[in-house]
Prior knowledge:
- With 428 residues, this protein is of the alpha+beta class.
- Helix 5 (98-105) packs across helix 6 and helix 7 (132-140) packs antiparallel against helix 8.
- It has helices at 10-21, 51-60, 71-76, 78-84, 98-105, 107-116, 132-140, 165-179, 244-264, 298-301, 309-317, 394-405, 421-427, and strands spanning 2-7, 27-32, 42-43, 65-68, 92-94, 124-128, 146-150, 159-162, 186-191, 196-204, 209-211, 216-217, 220-222, 226-229, 234-237, 271-280, 283-290, 332-339, 362-366, 369-371, 377-379, 383-391.
- It starts with a strand and ends with a helix.
Amino acid sequence: xxxxxLGSGGREHAIAAKLAQSKRxxxxxxxxxNAGTAAVGENVSLNPExxxxxxxxxxxxxxxxxxxxxxxxxxxxxxxxxxxxxALNRVMVIGPxxxxxxxxxxxxxxxxxMHRHKIPTARYQTFTAETLAEGQAFLETLxxxxxxxxxxxAAGKGVLxxxxxxTAKAHLADMLHGQFGQASASVVIEEYLSGIELSVFVLTDxxxxxxxxxxxxxxxxxxxxxxxxxxxxxxxxxxxxxxxxFMKKVEDRIVKPTVRGLRDEKIDYHGxxxxxxxxxxxxxxxxxxxxxxxxxxxxxxxxxxxNDVVELFENTANNTLDACSLSVDxxxxxxxxxxxxxxxxxxxxxxxxxxGEELDDVQLFHCGTKRNENGKxxxxxxxxxxxxxxxxxxxxxxxxxxxxxxxxxxxxxxxRRDIGQDLLKLMI
Length: 428
C-alpha cells in the first residue's frame, strides 16, 4: 500500500516511523516532512492545506491512504474534499470530516457538544467584541484564576490564564480586538479547574474505539511550568496516576459519550480524538478536544504501540475497528524536547546540528530540521529535535532521555531539565 502522511513535525516523524515498520506499507510519502522523516520515507514538497495539489499527487502516485497529522487541513475540510472528489473518494482518509474537526476548530462548538452529551467540563460562556461588557461582567462572577480561550485555531498559544481580574478583563478586550487574529474573534471564558493535566487519545471509526496510552505534556518554556506557552517541551507516557480506576471513569464518563455523541449526531469521524483532561480530585474533566494526535505526546505514545499501525488505520477507515485490540509496550516512555534559543518568540534558523552517539532504547524525532544546500543537518524551526527513551520505570526513562539530549548540539540549544519531575514527586 502507498501512504501519504501530511505534516512536518515530531508528531509526523513518530507516526512515519511506525507506518514504515508495517509490511502493509510498501511506499511512504511525507508532505512536506523534515530531515528525520526523510530517513523513513520520501519527503514531498506539498502544502497540506493546498487540497488540489495534494489530491493531484495522490492520483498521480496511486496513493491508497492519506494520514493527516496536523489540525489545520482537517478543520479546513480535507477529508470532505477527498470524499466529494470522484477521483479521490476511494482513498482511505485518517482524520475526521469538517464537522467533526469543529471539535478542535471551535472551542465554543466543543463546549456545546460536551454540554449536549453531559460530558464533564468546566462552566463557560462565549463572547464577541459586541458583548465585551457582558464578558467582563461574567469574569466578575468567577473565582480567580481566570481562563480565556480563543475560539479558533491559534497554534496552541490561544489560552491565557490570569490571576488578576483587571488583567483578565484587559486581556479579554485585547483578544476580542485581534490579539490572535480571527481565532479570537470569539473568546470562551471558563471556570478554572484545579488539578493535574493529562492527555487521553482515542482512535475511532465513528462507532467503535480504542483508547491509546495516556500521556502528560509540558507546555511552558520555563522550568517549574513558568514562562510562555509553547507547542510542548516534553511528554511522558503512561501517566502514573491514570490507573485502571481512573481510566474506567474516563472511558465511562467521557470516551463513551463522546463516541456515542458523534454517532448520534451523524458526524462522519474516522481518526483520532485527543481529549485534554484535568484530574480534579480523582474525577476527570475535559479541558479541550483536539482532532489529531498531540505533539509532543505522539513522540511518547507511538513508540509504545506494538500493533501494526497501518492495520489499525485500515480498520478505522473501514468501520471495523471492533476487530482490533491494542497491544502496548508496558515500559515507560519519556520525551524531552530541544528548542532553538529564543523560542517561542524570535529565534534563528539554519544552525548546524551535531546528533552525537546513539543510545539503546532512545529515539530522536525531528521536529524542525532540514538539510541545507551542502547536505548538512540544520535547525528549521522553534522546536527542533526531541529524544524519547524507553525504560522499565519513569526515573530510568528520564535519565536515558537526558543522557541522549546531552549528546545533541547546536548553537543556542535549550531544553527544560525538569520534565517528569512533578510525576516523580507523586510516586514517592
